[in-house]
Amino acid sequence: MDYSIRRMLATRGALVAAVTAGGVGIAFLAGRVLLGLVSLIGPESVVYSGSYLTLPFVGASAGFIVLTSILPFSIGYFLGLWVVAPITEQLRVGHVVARAVVATGIGATLWFIVLGLIGVVRAVVSTPEILGIAASQLLVAGQLGYALQEALTGFIALLPIGVLGAVFLWLWRSANPAPHHIEGFIDV
Questions:
Q1: What is the tens place of the pLDDT at every residue in 64-103?
Q2: Which pLDDT does position 56 carry in this prediction?
Q3: What ranges make up the beta strands (E) of 109-168?
């Protein structure tokens, strides 16, 4: 491992970045829960399922959603605010917004990687051929396309929340300056 990578991983400021990423993750979870509730009580759920019997199955997919979307995005956002582009009190608002966009992009990229890997594994496993990967090229491409669409949509939808979280972090850092120097990959 390079010296600069070791130095970045030893950087202080992980706690405030984790709290900010946790807040953004909770906002993401709240949005997903509200979206799920609206889709369950909407007229489409009665038309397609015939009744509200799908309600018990919400818990099964909720864990999958948390593990494949909320957790990867929050971890990527945290790494973005801690290691790559930390927010300090010396920055101006434009720099804070730019670093928030970078952190949100890292979160969306990690989300794409996780969804893409799960999709590729699903495509290969669901193919009944002995040479599964050869027969499932269209399935793999479809799953990667889905993962890209989800990650890009999530990036656009979560960008305001990510920027708001970074601005709150910047305001907190302005009121409580760090006693030590904070820098990330973007500062080196």
A1: 777 888 999 999 999 999 988 899 888 899 999 999 999 9
A2: 47
A3: none
- Is 53's pLDDT higher than 50? no
Rounded mean pLDDT of 135-152?
83
At residue 42, the 3 state secondary structure works out as coil
Nearest residue to 162 via CA among 72, 80, 91: 80
The CA–CA distances, whole Å, from 149 to 49, 116, 156 equal 26, 11, 11
Higher pLDDT, 178 or 152: 152
Four-residue CA torsion sign, 38, 44, 45, 51: positive
CA-CA distances (angstroms) from residue 58 to 41, 42, 52, 114, 159?
A: 12, 15, 11, 21, 27
Helix (H) and strand (E) counts in the chain: 8, 0
Cα–Cα distance measured from residue 69 to residue 39, given in angstroms and rounded to the nearest whole number = 18
93: number of Cβ within 10 Å: 9
Query: pTM for this one?
Result: 0.81
Closest by CA to 108, choosing from 66, 157, 67, is 157
Taking the C-alpha atoms of residue 21 and residue 24, their distance in angstroms, rounded to an integer, is 5
Give CA 10 to chain center in angstroms.
Answer: 23
